[in-house]
Amino acid sequence: MGSSISMLFFINLAIIILNLVAPTISQDDGICTFTADYCWKCSDTGTYTAGDKYQENLNSLLSSFSSSTQNNSGFYSSSRGQDSNKVNAIALCRGDLSQDSCQACLNISTDILLQNCSTQKEAIIWAERCMVRYSYSLIFGIKQEDPLKHVPGPNSAKNPQQFELVLTPLLGILRDRAASGDSLKKFAAGHAPVPGGETIYALAQCTPDIDKQNCSSCLKQSVTEIQTCCGGKQGGRVLKPSCNLRYEVSLFFRSTADKLVDIPAPAPAAPALKEAKKKSNTKQTVIIVVVVLVVFVIIFSSICFFFRVKKRRVKLEQDENSEDVSLVESLQYDFETVRSATDDFSDANKLGQGGFGAVYKGRLANGTYIAVKRLSKNSEQGDREFKTEVTLVAQLQHRNLVRLLGFCLKAGERILIYEYVPNTSLNHFIFDPIDQAHLDWETRYKIIGGIARGLLYLHEDS
């Protein structure tokens, strides 16, 4: 038991330390086609039955998006139905698409989504040129970053360090431009050259129903995830319900949306800044060393405290065990003494037969009458468990409980010795036609009170 407690203690301590130092990592989700032209996620939060009102509303709503001719912004949001059959849906086309290209993408994406999520009440699909999403919950004007999908490109950059120095600020600039869009479109695209011959083309986009702050926050987190999922790659995508990022080394959007993005060269660090950075690094090193030492001291102190408490507990248990052994020895009767007291368990001394064995009347050499219960031999209880149980029962002392005087163990024999009750069992008086006349209602009331006091003692004081 002690080793288990110590193991749990150190596991919990390790988990706490890991939680303090481990960064938060977003969980990649969803399924993509082989070439990642389409990625989707079917939520398991609820299902509908084929042919029911929810499906009818869903099909009607999504069909209206792909057939609408009144929207030139590429963003659609609407609801259909009531109560549990209400469907909320959003569709977003890439900001550079024409209306015809947008509707074509929505039409194909809707078909793929409904085929793969045929009974789910909530799902999303990301195509290269559009996104379709529906849910039974409210989704309008709410920043949603889950589920998400990371799609890294297959090829590595020629110079990952130089590539990263251009990619990160490029995505940061496009993030700010997209977040500054209006309620119809939040989209920005552009390119920047990388020293060495590569050119990065990138875009950032949010659903225009969320505000500037939420759009910027969603894209900022996505830029961080680009570094995690696609670092060193020539291309990558981060796909979320409320925003998406993409970059490649070739043009993947319409040239009319492309703009050269000027990436400021990193300014050389001034001597004062270098000295400040050096001091900052020294300060960080000192803090890290101090934290590590403090954690080490805490762990070491905890170990010492644990083993000290364990040693004291073992000593107490040994003392308790020695007391228990003494008590057990004082309660144990010799088998020959019990057999002699019951006249070798003769039928003449037999008082009754229960489910756990026969009960005999006996008389010890000092003239004391005892009741001997000879337990059946088919019990699976071990000798040690039997002794422990006898020790506990023998300590129960109450005037309304028959007292256990001791026990006997020998060659498969398990015997309990109780004080002898000359008036026999209560059921003899209750059910015997003649003797039940001795029990008037006042006597029965006293008997009930005694039984209740015995039970109360067992429950609260034993």
TrEMBL record:
Residues engaged in binding ATP: K373
Listed transmembrane segments: 286-307
Topology in the lipid bilayer: Single-pass membrane protein
Chief place where the protein resides: membrane
SMART domains given in the database record: TyrKc
One annotated GO molecular function: ATP binding
Keyword Glycosyltransferase on entry: no
Protein kinase domain span: 345-462
Keywords assigned: ATP-binding, Glycoprotein, Kinase, Membrane, Nucleotide-binding, Phosphoprotein, Receptor, Repeat, Serine/threonine-protein kinase, Signal, Transferase, Transmembrane, Transmembrane helix
Presence of keyword Transferase: yes
PANTHER family reported for this sequence: CYSTEINE-RICH RECEPTOR-LIKE PROTEIN KINASE 27-RELATED (PTHR27002:SF1104), RECEPTOR-LIKE SERINE/THREONINE-PROTEIN KINASE SD1-8 (PTHR27002)
Name assigned to this protein: Putative receptor-like protein kinase
